Amino acid sequence: MRYERPSPPRLPVRALALVSLLAVTSSGKGAVERGRDLFRGREALVARLRHHRIDLPPEVVACSNCHAVEGRPPPSASRAPRIDRALLLEARARRGGPPSAYGASSFCRLVRTGIDPAHVLIAREMPVYAADDPQCQSLWAFAIRRKEAP
To answer: Is 72 part of any domain?
Structure first.
């Protein structure tokens, strides 16, 4: 059984972009800044391990607990990949699958379901997140930014 928070109705891409822009703008933060806060756990995300029924504590599911970003050292003993533009945007073979690259929608699908753009299931240690569209878009904006922001 796969964990999924009920998702809002799917909107056309233009409407989704407008909703995301309005949501981020109304919070007073830009998309990259909000994504940084989500990535580092300053803004809580809801997540659980696949096939589990209990949400993990917010401090445990911060992306930065496992993933490094440009210019920062990786967390100790982490096997998780460094998140940067090249990892996401360049077509690469991942986990035995065919070469693939991420886009905003495939990145959000991975965050929510654990399935990458080549339809390969990622490591079970990575939680699946009940991230809404504005949260996903902000995480994506932070992940593909040109260089590390302070």
So the answer is: yes
Burial class (CB in 10 A: 0-12, 13-18, 19+), 109: middle
CA 134 to chain centre: 11
Mean pLDDT in residue range 107-131: 94
Range of the structural domain that residue 79 is part of: 30-143
Counts for the chain of helices (H) and strands (E), in that order: 5, 4
Higher pLDDT, 7 or 124: 124
Under 8 Å CB-to-CB from 51, ≥6 apart: which residues?
A: 1, 2, 3
Residue 102 identity:
Y
Phi, psi of 121 (to 5 degrees): -75, 130
CATH number at residue 71: 1.10.760
Number of domains in the chain: 1
pTM for the structure as a whole = 0.75
